[in-house]
């Protein structure tokens, strides 16, 4: 299982992310669901094209990361590009509770129903 | 190249197009305690794994020399998925509770509904740290003892050994068993529900 990480050739990492910083990463949660708004186009950076191809149905950031075998933070940078270009939409967790705040009981009830059904 | 990608994506179960609310539950525990097994037992997809990396600067440790530090924190974790309804989808994460993992907790797992601490009574030491960190993050959790056989400790003894507050549910499980793993998740969400109901009742 070969992944691209910080110990890899810096040039390779630079190529994937276009040398951008990680400042924008917080725009995506691990479970933000990503949906493509267009098809890949010829000449598009291959990682961008792969993301557009795999997000025809909603797909979480962490699933994209696993599929691309790239660390989550690198994937988030790629997603920022696509979001800025209007090529994807991002469905963020609706009720991400702040630290030490409990989730909505109605939502928990829904989760319980689904778990009992498993 | 493109067709290879399509083929790979075509075979996997995709979410409903209405899905718009990702939820998180985290299973933490020492090495080999059964985290991946539990995720596999209840997930609707084969467990996937990935990793997150963070530079030291990013975790608030400034390099006093001013020279860019090459030191990074890498944490690997696996995950599975359970569809809840048309909108909500629950992601279940299995993560090692070792020290460096907690540097990434806020970045990866803020907004998590709750956690399961999976323990193996032959190696209880591994669990203390995770319990301490969850309390520190004020993350609600339950503890599940994974049954590897041969344990002669009662749950009361385990509770005492872990110095676990009476409010924290402690149950037995077999991570290989779907029904048993399902019961663990239900126990956690029941606990969350009770906490949340208590909070909203004056
Ligand atoms: N007897 C018994 N064996 C189990 C149980 N759960 C897991 N195992 C076995 O224990 C071994 C380790 O399980 P994993 O699920 O890989 O554990 P893990 O916590 O993901 O391990 P790491 O990711 O390496 O830290 C596997 O061989 C499992 O089949 C259990 O409840 N009872
Ligand atoms: Mg594992």
From TrEMBL, chain B:
One of its GO terms (molecular function) is ATP binding. The keyword Transcription does not apply. It holds the Pfam family ATP_bind_1. Keywords: ATP-binding, GTP-binding, Hydrolase, Nucleotide-binding. Belongs to the GPN-loop GTPase family. This is ATP-binding protein. SUPFAM superfamilies: P-loop containing nucleoside triphosphate hydrolases. The keyword ATP-binding applies. CDD domains: Ras_like_GTPase. Gene3D superfamilies: P-loop containing nucleotide triphosphate hydrolases (3.40.50.300). It comes from Streptomyces varsoviensis.
């Amino acid at each position: 299982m070969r992944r691209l990480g910080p110990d890899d050739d810096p040039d390779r990492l630079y190529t994937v992310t276009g040398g951008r910083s990680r400042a924008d990463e917080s725009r995506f949660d691990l479970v933000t669901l990503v949906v493509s708004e267009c098809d890949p186009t010829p000449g598009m950076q291959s990682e961008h094209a792969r993301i557009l191809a795999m997000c025809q149905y909603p797909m979480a950031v962490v699933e994209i990361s696993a599929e691309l075998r790239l660390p989550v933070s690198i994937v988030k940078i790629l997603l920022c590009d696509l979001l800025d270009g209007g090529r994807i939409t991002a469905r963020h967790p609706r009720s991400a509770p702040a630290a030490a705040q409990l989730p909505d009981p109605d939502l928990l009830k829904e989760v319980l129903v689904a778990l009992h059904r498993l | 190249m493109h067709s290879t990608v399509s083929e790979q994506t075509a075979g996997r179960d995709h979410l409903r197009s209405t899905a718009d609310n990702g939820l998180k539950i985290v299973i933490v525990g020492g090495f080999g305690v059964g985290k991946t097994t539990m995720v596999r037992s209840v997930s609707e997809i084969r467990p996937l794994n990935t990793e997150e990396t963070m530079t030291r600067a990013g975790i608030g440790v400034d390099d006093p020399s001013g020279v860019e530090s090459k030191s990074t924190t890498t944490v690997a974790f696996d995950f599975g998925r359970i569809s809840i309804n048309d909108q909500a989808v629950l992601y279940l994460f299995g993560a090692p509770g070792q020290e460096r993992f907690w540097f990434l907790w806020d970045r990866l797992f803020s907004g998590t509904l709750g956690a399961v601490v999976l323990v193996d009574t032959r190696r209880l030491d591994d669990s203390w740290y995770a319990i301490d960190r969850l309390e520190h993050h004020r993350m609600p959790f339950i503890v599940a003892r994974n049954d590897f056989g041969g344990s002669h400790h009662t749950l009361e003894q385990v509770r005492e050994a872990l110095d676990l507050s009476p409010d924290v549910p402690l149950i037995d499980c077999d991570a290989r068993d779907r029904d048993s793993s399902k019961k663990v998740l239900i126990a956690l969400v029941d606990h969350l529900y009770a906490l949340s109901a208590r909070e909203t009742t004056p």
